[in-house]
Amino acid sequence: MMMDIFANSIALAIRDDGSCTSETDYNGEHWGARISSIFVILVTSGFGTFLPILSSKYSFIRLPNWVFFIAKYFGSGVIVATGFIHLLQPANEALSTDCLGGVWVEYPMAFAFCLISLFFLFFSELMTFHYVDQKIQQGADFGEEEGHSHSHFGNADLYTKKDELHTEDDEDEKANLASSANADEDKINLPYPKHFNHAHDHQDPEVMGTPVNIQDREQYYGQLVGVLVLEFGVVFHSVFVGISLAVAGDEFVSLYIVLVFHQMFEGLGLGTRIATANWPSKYKYTPWIMALAYTLTTPIAIAIGLGVRESYPPNSRRALLCNGIFDSISAGILLYTGLVELMAHEFLYSGEFKGKGSMKKMLAAFGVMCLGTGLMALLGKWA
């Protein structure tokens, strides 16, 4: 009974009752440009997404380290700005339209859906890493002894400096570690799990899953979950971007120009994260599939939009609710990924900004990220 009431309430909420306009914005102009947008955005999206992956795989197009550095943090800023400016704001505008009436105009539903999405994503990641932690502990003999520290993320031996895990009586073992300690004197191991240490070590993907790499499994799964979640949110957003461009009216030209840069920058942010993840040999095609999925999503959505250009009412009740709800969910995904996975993990828990000259490098990365955020936020004036 309760399920029937809930289903009827949802159906009533999205039913077109004539209170919102059912007219399409399509005006029949710029047909050639609309067709060209399929191929132009296909190329720019593919360029932004595939370039970081190609440059990380093949030496003949390998870019200088500083170029990859800029692309990485510029893309992080783009993702954060996309969540706030290009997703959450349009979602709030759509879900607060007066013609929707009822709870939609009485409560900030866009922010509510975004909040639910964010917490659901965090809970899912918690459960994922708890599961991974249990599997790691079952598959390896960590030699735990009573009195050692424990955490939600497993044995502290995985991520604590070895000289902190021994007592003062272990002089012999400390001596054996002296040579390796000297070699790594500039590397600071933070007392955080490998999951938070995304950029600290980049292991050979070929040995992923072997006893040699047992300590980096959580790091690997952390990167994998983060990239998959980011892909999901970006692809969802790209569907509505493509349809909106296809059925746009007088604002088509400005929207077309802006979306070319929008999709390229967003693809750059996604591509750099795909390229920097550790992919084992059995998943060697996964980065290419993910990049291809993003590249094709918007052009296919544009083609679908052109097919329904005269019958799709973007300001109808159903369209407003669908766009607003899905944009809100995608906003929560991108905000969580951008603020936690990209900003906090890279700047606070990463070993990349430790040691000599770290302050200069960190400020440069922060400046590049602000540049990406600012440019993507500026594009929000037109799209």
General description of the model:
GO terms for molecular function: low-affinity zinc ion transmembrane transporter activity. Its main location: membrane. This is Zinc-regulated transporter 2. By secondary structure, the protein is mainly alpha-helical. The chain has a domain of 263 residues. Helices cover 65% and strands 1% of the residues. The protein has twelve helices and two strands. The protein has a two-stranded antiparallel ribbon with strand order 1-2. Strand 1 and strand 2 form a beta hairpin. Helix 3 packs across helix 5 and helix 8 packs antiparallel against helix 11. The longest helix is centred in the first third of the chain and has 31 residues. The radius of gyration is 24 Å and the shape is globular. The N terminus is likely disordered.
Task: Name some characteristics of this structure.
383 residues; mainly alpha; two-stranded antiparallel ribbon; 12 helices; globular; membrane; transmembrane; Zinc-regulated transporter 2; Zn/Fe_permease_fun/pln; transport
